[in-house]
Amino acid sequence: MMTIGQGMRFLPPPAGMEGGRVVSALRFTLFIPLVLLVVATVNLLY
Description:
This protein has 46 residues and is mainly α. It contains two helices and no strands. The protein is rod-shaped. The chain starts with a helix and ends with a helix.
C-alpha cells in the first residue's frame, strides 16, 4: 500500500496545473477501490 503511493509520488508531474489535477484525480479513483479491496480482505480474514 505505502510503496504504491510512494512510487506514484515519485513519478514526474505533467506540465501544467490541469494535467496535474487530472493525474491526482486518476490516482484518487484508483486508490478508492484499492482501499475497499484491502478492507474487504481484512474483514474476510478476521
